[in-house]
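Exercise (ungraded).
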Amino acid sequence: MADQTYDAIVIGSGISGGWAAKELTEKGLKVLMLERGRNIEHIKDYVNATKNPWEIPHRGMRTQKMLTDHPVLSRDYTLNEANLDYWADEQECPYTEAKPFDWFRGYHVGGRSLMWGRQSYRWSDFDFEANAKENIAVDWPIRYKEIAPWYDYAETFAGISGSVENMPQLPDGKFMPPMEMNIVEKDVAARVKEHYKNARRFIIGRVANITQPHNGRTNCQYRNKCWLGCPFGGYFSTQSATLPAAVKTGNLTLRPFSIVTKIVYDKNTKKATGVEIIDAETNKTYTFNSKIVFVCASALNSAWILMNSATDIWPGGLGSSSGELGHNVIDHHFRAGASGEAEGYDDKYVFGRRANGIYVPRYRNLFGDKRDYLRGFGYQGGASRQGWQREIAELGIGAPLKDAMSEPGKWTIGLTGFGETLPYHENQVSLDKDKKDKWGLPVLRMDCEIKDNEKKMRKDMMDDAAEMLEAAGIKNVKTYDAGYTFGMGIHEMGSARMGKDPKTSVLNGNNQVWDAKNVFVTDGACMTSSNCVNPSLTYMALTARAVDFAVSELKKGNL
Amino acid sequence: MNRRDALSRVGLLMGATVIGSEFFLSGCKNTDKKGGSELSKDDIAFLDEVGETIIPTTSTPGAKSVGIGAFMNMMVKDCYTDENQKIFTEGIGKLDEASKKKNSKSFLDSTPEQRTALLNDLDAEQKAYYKSKKKEDPEHYFKLMKQLTLLGYFTSETGATKTLRYIETPGHYDGNLPYKKGDKAWATS
């Protein structure tokens, strides 16, 4: 059927899928974008975004029903009354935990681009070269100079605000004007910079919230309700940015409720001919054909699709010939750091709710520093004045308590480390054929854990934070390690890694599946190592780069 | 809330006690229960008076004006485990018993001054209890009542806009806003 044939199919509509659809349609291809969940329309479907706190019945707290329905989501801040509908249905879509694994998923148009943390940082050659230099896993097939123009391109379209800092480990980008540090953060930043002679720096977070009007989107209004969806389009999401661009070309067909079950592979041409889906609402099966397929279903689901494809040729699925598909799963381990109190700022406060914090770029194992572990970590944090939630030990109840609570409390400042996780072959996701989801499909089985390298790093993540805060004159500093479960960083990556050799990697340096050259995987699955910075900006850049390559190859008749 | 807020929340959890959020983040145990039983109208009226004593009418309205009793009823029914529901519900009787013991009359028959004195005693009692409380020990009913009162009041329209300050769409950020004693705190961050 004619309407079932497209130039390209994009599986998934999150950050990577949205970028793939935008780039492919703008290059003139007729594109079908498949999304397993429902549609969420920009602005119209952000049902809680303009509500006041008192209009949320339980004021954002958790009901017993929410805890019962969302046992995984309840393990972290993710379970919240205000955007409950943005998270995957755990009853319909279970998974198996051989070892504890937190998988926080967004099954709807836009995916996690609606709820993401929006911190956006470039990788440097310290990161692209680390595996090769330390003989860990395999070498990245690309270096900074190859991705740098694509970072420029991605930042310019997405709208990333940030400051130029000239730090080699965290390259500067095409930034919109930075958000502002508050007075405590500014003073602490100046003291840290001086104390560590510029080796450690506090900078304002680089964030995908626009600080100027951009492509018809309104600049960030400092509401700090991003994860409900922004009616101003103040932050980058599929809905606010890539989807409207793709729709504008007239070349996009978006099909929600489409669960891709396999990529259809032709062993004669050694290429994919399209995909097979189950309609999530009707349970009917459909086949769609295309010249190229972009797999952007989120790292672990992209691996799942590959593992379910071409199993008559490779029992482990498409891309499994290397033995690496589903392996080398990585994330960022976090929730260790320190916090304390800033004195002498009682006459200072803030206006507006800044959905961004400060960032401390990595300094460990760089520029001559050497630790008893590899790689490093960055910190996210910020200073703020306590509100009514604080406890005032010396006050009981009544008017004195009410009066005290009506005023702000102490200034506090906190830092939380986000650490690199090494890619261990044995950290793996696989198909659990004994357990099925609502549609009778096998589910993923997670078998991942952090090891000594990460555990040693966590101690530094606590101690360094405390040392820096104390050096900056912060009082009553306390360290913490609130514990980490694999996946909790919501930066799962690595399950179909890029490499230079088809024997040891799933994808080549253009995100092309070695075993099917018209299939591209450009989401977190492709990452060969995790670095310690938030990864989504890198997916954007790699996706745009891979589309450019794919379309060029298509025109040359190579695909 | 976003991840940074959640992290600062975690940071606070390690240090200070966050009334409300701490309890609801980690205090609820998962059970199969889908919601508990309703409190009676009398209980809700009683809790209105307890809430009003904790957050009284001053230059701005107090907790009774925001329907704090009905709010507590909803939260206890929907959010609490069976165990904490029982502690809370039995706490209503315990509070009245404590009133009879201290003031020789029921809580509702007491004067505002007597009510305040009683609840200050109970607050001191719960604070002392939590100083040595082990994780598996039960919650103290008065801490639950105080938490729900503060949560319900300061997140209500009255609490957020009259006793605190709230602007739905700030539009810009100033990280160096002058502050003088008496200026109100922001309702949300």
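Further reading is listed at the end of the chapter. For now, observe: Chain B touches chain A through 83 residues (CB under 8 Å). Residues 1-30 of chain B form one domain.
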